[in-house]
Specification:
Elements lengths: L30 E6 L3 E6 L4 E9 L6 E8 L9 E8 L4 E7 L6 E10 L4 E13 L15 E6 L7 E7 L3 E9 L4 E10 L2 E7 L12 E9 L2 E9 L2
């Protein structure tokens, strides 16, 4: 930071002939850990949903820190990254930024947070990615599908039925089921082999015996090979 000094002579008058040398301690580098989005791909309905990016900072001297959030289509700082906003983050606090998806194209985004204490800086990438999808079709604009994604169901919450969507990067065995909060299987949606691409199923809010389930929270669960994907569904009555 900046230092201002006055040197006084014996009589108390200011004397500009003196010199002053400052030797401040070395300033340690702050660090940031991006905690959200966590590992995995996180679908977000573009223009209809926001996403809260979260991070944790620390500074060796317990200085205040400032975090700048960027997103990019690739996990590199190549000049194409987009700065979202600079936020003040207090020592040890969990900072956050609300990502407004209405301003961005569909597709995959990587999140990078850069932290500074006013002197030195560092940064890190989020362990997960955000996947902006069309709120009607549930798909992005990728030319090729490179990962399995359990897309958001719609409507959610739902009353009579809801549409379930799954995007497969390659042909595979799939187990698609609905579970309740107690972990009990409520309904088997599909079990078997599926080709790559997007797949659409409908859940009518009934269990395996054909009875309507009670209102509440349920889990849309898909197992693709050894990979498990889960999303939350809310049934209202």
């Amino acid at each position: 930071g900046y230092y201002y000094a006055r040197v006084y002579g014996a009589s108390g008058a200011i004397n500009q002939g003196y010199t002053l040398t400052l030797d401040p301690p070395a300033n340690g580098t702050p660090s940031v850990i991006v905690t959200d989005p966590p590992s995995g791909t996180h679908p977000v309905l573009a223009s209809k949903e926001t996403y809260t990016i979260q991070w944790q900072t620390s500074d060796p001297e317990a200085n205040d820190t400032w975090v700048t959030v960027y997103v990019n289509r690739q996990p590199v700082l190549d000049g194409n990254e987009i700065q979202l906003e600079t936020s003040v983050n207090t020592q040890g606090a969990l900072g956050f930024h609300i990502f407004n998806t209405a301003e961005f194209d569909l597709g995959t985004y990587y999140v990078y947070c850069e932290v500074t204490d006013g002197g030195t800086k560092s940064g890190s990438w989020a362990p997960g990615t955000l996947y902006l999808v069309d709120p009607v079709t549930g798909i992005g604009n990728e030319q090729g599908i490179t990962q399995n994604v359990l897309l958001p169901n719609a409507p959610n919450p739902f009353y009579s039925s809801t549409t379930l969507r799954l995007q497969l990067a390659a042909p595979n065995q799939v187990q698609w089921r609905i579970y309740d909060l107690a972990g009990r299987q409520v309904r088997e949606i599909f079990t078997g082999f599926m080709p790559e691409g997007q797949h659409v199923m409908t859940w009518d809010g009934r269990d395996s015996s054909g009875q309507e389930v009670a209102g509440g929270i349920y889990f849309n669960t898909v197992v693709v090979g050894n990979e498990k994907n889960v999303s939350k569904i809310v049934r209202v009555q």
